[in-house]
Amino acid sequence: MENIQHYFPQLTEEQTERLQALGPIYREWNEKINVISRKDIDNLFLHHVLHSLSIARFIHFTPSTDILDFGTGGGFPGIPLAILFPECRFKLIDGTGKKIRVVNEVTSAIGLDNVQAEQIRGEEEKGKYDFIVTRGVMPLPDTARMLKKNISHKQRNAIPNGIIALKGGDIQAEAAPYKNIIEVADISQWFDNPWFKQKHILYLPM
């Protein structure tokens, strides 16, 4: 948690309390439902929460922005972002019911009321959103084809609506089809922990 406070010193008391509460809540639920690998739970704040919040360094969502977290798993990046942007609306979807159960339990426990979670596949989602965020669920071209229908035409942010994907490793093949329009940001420019080397944000305006 000290890493998060270091990089986000402007957090309110409520935001800090909610982020801190994620530690014991996820530990408890991970004993029942394996939403984070057992060996990685000790790195929850660095590998999952702070990684999710890197999107907040790339874009500061304006109030009333609608964001879809596709393939949210246990709630990443959606829950940390919803804590940071309480005036935005988040929908978190995943095809696995037990993961959505964890998301609902976590958001309820910390009193997060700007999150809706649903067990649904991406191709079945009907809503319109300003941005779709995702954490490496599938190759970007597949994500773009599936969720293009869900991007709103109404613009309200500093950058055009589109997909913001957290990716690791070599992303050249995924970025290649969009070489003239995609923007790639290295997360290590904001966070100096060595774990963030080779971690990227891919932004595809749509």
Q: How large, in whole angstroms, is the Cα Rg?
A: 16 Å
- In the sheet with the most strands, the strands line up as 3-2-1-4-5-7-6
Q: How would you classify the quaternary structure?
A: single chain
- Main beta-sheet strand count, sense and barrel state: 7 strands, mixed
Question: Which keywords apply here?
Answer:
alpha/beta, 206 residues
What does this 3D model show about the protein?
- By secondary structure, the chain is an alpha/beta fold.
- 35% of the residues lie in helices and 18% in strands.
- It has a 7-stranded mixed sheet with strand order 3-2-1-4-5-7-6, with helices on both faces.
- Strand 1, helix 4 (78-84) and strand 2 (89-94) form a beta-alpha-beta unit.
- The radius of gyration is 16 Å and the shape is globular.
- The mean pLDDT is 96.
Short description:
This protein has 206 residues and is of the alpha/beta class.
Q: What's the arrangement of secondary structure elements?
A:
Blueprint: H1 2-7, H2 13-32, H3 44-58, E1 66-70, H4 78-84, E2 89-94, H5 97-109, E3 115-119, E4 131-134, H6 140-147, E5 162-168, H7 172-175, E6 183-186, E7 199-205
Parallel strand pairs: 1-2, 1-4, 2-3, 4-5
Antiparallel strand pairs: 5-7, 6-7
Helix pairs in contact: 3-4
